[in-house]
Amino acid sequence: MNNVHLLKKYNIPGPRYTSYPTVPFWKNNPLSETEWKSTIQTFMERFQHQEISLYIHLPFCENLCTFCGCHKRITKNHQVEEPYIDTLLKEWELYRATFEFEPTIKELHFGGGTPTFFQAKELIRLLRGIFKASSIQPENCELSFEAHPGSTSHEQLTELYQFGFRRISFGIQDYDFEVQKAINRVQSFELVQNVHQLAKEIGYTSINHDLVYGLPKQSMTAFQNTINLTIELLPERIALYSYAHVPWIKGTGQRGYNEADLPQDADKRALYEMAYEKLLENGYVAIGMDHFALANDALTLAFNARKLHRNFMGYTTKSTNWMIGLGMSSISDCWIGFAQNNKTVESYQEQVNNGIIPVFRGHVLTENELVIRRHILDLMCHFETRFNDNPAFKSINLEIEKRLQPMLEDELVEISCNSVKVLPKGLPYVRNACMAFDQDLATNVIGQQLFSKTI
Ligand code: SF4
Questions:
Q1: What is the pLDDT of residues 13-70, one digit of tens each?
Q2: Is the Cβ atom of 115 under 6 angstroms away from ligand 1?
Q3: Which of 90, 106, 285, 403 is the most buried (most CB within 10 A)?
Q4: Exposed e or buried b for every residue in 417-436, given b needs 16+ CB within 10 A?
């Protein structure tokens, strides 16, 4: 079967598997604060885990990018900064009251929204409040933030660097002016080059550029130029995401262009394959599903050593089983359970100001789901899962084997009595391999319509 036929066969709606079960299949909806605290308690008793990752959602953006799938609030009013930071600090105190220990923060990430919407002094106030009672070991704690090239100042870069940040992720998407107009995010290469070089001069050691393929008006020639310009700056990491077209979920923000403006199936895949070839030719290593890193970057070393981890922040080198998400819409994950915060700024602030951890939905995993979760995580991080690593699930279940049969016949996966491995030809279809393990999709076909396509 050639690539075009494979694409037609496997390019179906499917999850990105930043969690299992995936959010649409969470059962505790609504989830009360009491239920969430009890899940945390069970986790602490079972795992005695003191290391945490912190994700902090900073939702404000000055302008709406029409392709955006994030939880954000568009405003030019910077008066919102102070009360939002106050609320984050209160929420952190609510979590601290549930701990039976002083946590060690292994990784902290500012995501958004636009974290660089906030003035440096507000971000530093937040960090000081969070770390004042935590056991921070700067040499072991990875601090990172997402930045909008157009709103990142010298002051922000310097102050965050002095606090210990060494990693930044810049949202680039595409340098082509037609694409940028279509997605309402016009930023020149010179602007990105200046801020990238400034970060390097200050001392940041790991810079990521987010690119997106499959955007409206994107052409092969223009995207080749974007990849060439990216390689010119040589960021340590590149995330090359497939544009997730889900206007039925994300509403009007994604309806600023027509379906006809989007590169489809084989054309879209060709954009990825061109980028893949060029990045590998220029010293990058393909990591996990849609990430690339230079050979000496920590992400590559973790991938090679089979130590890569994946959570709601994406791929990471820190493998903590507990990620606390602070801020509106953030998701927390304590391995045996998930919880998501309220999705509007107002409801989030109201709950926290009433002294309540502001969760509204979640999921507590069954023992069987925990086993499936491990297999899906291994496939997403290592392209292989082994059964004898897991005493609860010693050999492949017949139903899963049956669902993998088409991929086996198309030579995309290899199945042995002890493992399922995604073969090089099957790497674009790793999400499809995970879907074979997904009990929720197997029992609920309608569920698939909730997701964007796998390619
Ligand atoms: S892409 Fe980033 S900057 Fe643009 S609206 Fe979304 S969160 Fe805000």
A1: 888 898 899 999 999 889 999 999 999 999 988 887 778 999 999 999 999 998 898 9
A2: no
A3: 106
A4: eebbbbbeebebbbbbbbbb
